[in-house]
Design brief:
The protein has helices spanning 3-12, 25-39, 54-64, 74-78, 80-94, 131-144, 154-163, 168-182, 187-201, 221-233, 237-242, 262-271, 280-283, 290-304, 315-319, 332-346, 365-368, 384-397, 407-413, 419-435, 442-450, 455-458, 460-470, and strands at 17-21, 44-47, 68-72, 102-107, 122-125, 206-209, 249-254, 275-278, 308-312, 351-357, 375-379, 475-476. It is α/β, with parallel strands linked by helices and 510 residues long. The chain has 4 domains: 3-125, P-loop containing nucleotide triphosphate hydrolases (Rossmann fold, 3-Layer(aba) Sandwich), CATH 3.40.50.300; 131-201, no CATH class; 221-379, P-loop containing nucleotide triphosphate hydrolases (Rossmann fold), CATH 3.40.50.300; 384-483, Helicase, Ruva Protein, domain 3. Helix 14 runs parallel beside helix 16 (332-346). The chain is elongated and about 90 Å long.
Length: 510
Amino acid sequence: MTLQQLVLNRLNAGTLLTVVIEADEALAVEACRMAAEAVSPRQVQVLSILDPEFGDKLAAHKDNGKGVMIISDLLRVQGQPAMGRLLREFALQVKAAPPYPRIILIETPGVEIPPGLKGDIEYITTEVPTRDELKQEIEQFITDQSIKLDGNGEMKAAIADAVAGLARHEVARLLARSYVELKALDVAWLRKAKAERIKEQSGRALTFVDPSDVPTLGGAERMQEWLADKKEAFASEKARNYGLPEPKGVLLVGVPGTGKSLTPKNIARAWGVPLVRLDMGAIFGSLVGQSEAQMRQALSAIDACSPCVLWVDEIEKGLGGLKSGGGGDSGTSTRVLGTFLTWLQEKTKPIFVVATANSVAALPPELLRKGRLDEIFFVDLPTQEEREVIATIHVVRKKRDPKVLDCAVIATICDGFSGAEIEQVLYDAMGRAFAQKREVDLNDIRNAARDTTPLSKTMSEDITKLRNWAKGKARSANKKPEDAAPTASTGTPKPFRTTIITNQTEKGDK
């Protein structure tokens, strides 16, 4: 249903105060004006709050007893408390004297409606188009411009996915810009432009992350096996018909540098869906109600981008300190947390949440409860076998032969190192060799490792606390050597084979 029809329905129902939430002011004003003229011909005013006679015209509109007044950004610019009282008085005074004058407020997303006014108004929030609707928009655009798309509908679907999550008018603008600037509908360009648009709309709380050129996740095989099962059920109509719910997501707790931040990137790449990063710190604003409004706006944008992977990195920094009830911010943090947790609990769209945390001491217990997310994984320091896999991944990425740089030896040299520390050791060793104008060897790696103090030593007490907390509270992401099944011939443990979260074939990533 169009915005014009939604407004017309409210006016015909006798609504006195209507708030239209729409980012495109010009589009909203035109739609509201056309709807109002259908109800009150020649009695429609489009008024700017910058008009020096704004107060007198508003009073005259109320006394006139008929017509429709359309005002943009009244609450955002004029200040909520005063305008809230004025509009509430308007609603109370005109109810007893029909015909009723009407007011339509056009506000940008993120504006908080004064609590005292909420019972006297009707909200209209424009919905973003579905993928089927987007395909129709794209079909109309390519017909109007006489554009021919390659493929049998695949290109149209790719373009629809690239602009999904944007309002209809924003989609039209991006399609036009892409065609004018590039003489084609370029999927990569559209994705980038959408990412910038949503980033600005969310107050930079949301960003799209390109997962195509990140290291493959090594180790954490138990978690990777679990994720492989969830991939089959994610955004799958067959899984829903089978009776499986949509996967919610995971909380990854563990030692810094063990691949927690790599996990959502690898999942998005393997599952072939966008990766959206939520910065909890950017949600909070200085104005009353701004934080809650920005959280709702961000969650609405995330819903529109489904199916996707949502990455909330170091969530304890955004939601930490709430165990004691919200601290000294007048309960803002608690309300933001409540909004986020309710969304986690109730969401039904295919959005797989990956939240990471280096510390659990400050995390609110509500987040750790089963039902918010599917599982909590504890990511420990890699074992010998996992370090060998990680070393192989990074050696191959650096275009070196893992047979020359023996990765089993590197794993032994880097005993107690995290995956990030192993990568840094390789960088340091290569830097030394390059400075001496020769090829890197194991002695360089050994020297670099000797000069590095790993977190297993500097944070030994914290790591021990994390391990103790994880016992009985989280599932281990790492597969230990004793988990391997014994061979039939010898009865000795069979070395486990690390499963990499990737949609690539076996080359150098295994």
